[in-house]
Fold:
Amino acid sequence: MSLMSKLLAITVLLSSLVEASSSNEKIEGFLKKTYGANPNIKSINVKITNKVEIQERNGWDAYFIELDAILKKDKRQVVQKQVWFSDGKVLSKELYDLNSGQDMRDLVSVPFKDEYYKKENLIYGNANAKHKVAIFSDPLCPFCKVFVPEAINEMRKQPNKFAIYYYHFPLPSLHPAAVELVNAAVALELKGRKNVVLDLYKVEVDPKEKSVEKILEAFNKVMNSNIRMYDLMQKDVVKHIKSDLTIADELMVQGTPTIFFDGKIDKTKNKYKAVK
Structure:
């Protein structure tokens, strides 16, 4: 097929969407048909999990999509989350402001549901405080090691103004040691220890370290604790970490630190500083 023919085919395909309504069913159907044409995919389900209006662009909405596919070769299941944009006439994977170069993906996020504010994630402040701040972090992330303790220490001074919720989000591909560190932190918290999160950022260990013994040695040295490998495998520890990672996945958190301020993602990470 010539390049012109390919472009024509794409134009015809997109025009069918232009002429149709941009209802969830139409968008889901369009994406299912598009991705389903991939010869490597045996079957695929497409679901819109959230729709958010882009306030900076009247008429445009962001659609949060979950793709659930089964591959032909090994029948492996692949689940992927994406963001698409539509003004009711066209559908686009990317949307930029021509004047500022602003990526519209930086202006939208999955809504932070009230159910995500769990008691076990509240580390400082009053649950009924005026502002709720949710922090997703990896204790071995270089930027997190500086930013997170500083932000927490500043906000904890005003417990009736800030409710600080913390979610463990280790990045195993970058910092393998962080996985066992956060498990140890949760295990120690479940034993009744306070201020574990702040002290967690004081632990000095090679981010690439994979020896659980060495990781726990560094952790226990800072915490003056006696957490053992057995503690990391306790049911409540596994449950807490799984909950944190599930919430992060539903919110499409990908990097650290990720901050939500009053239910909306804070790309600046500094909205708390503007609170008077």
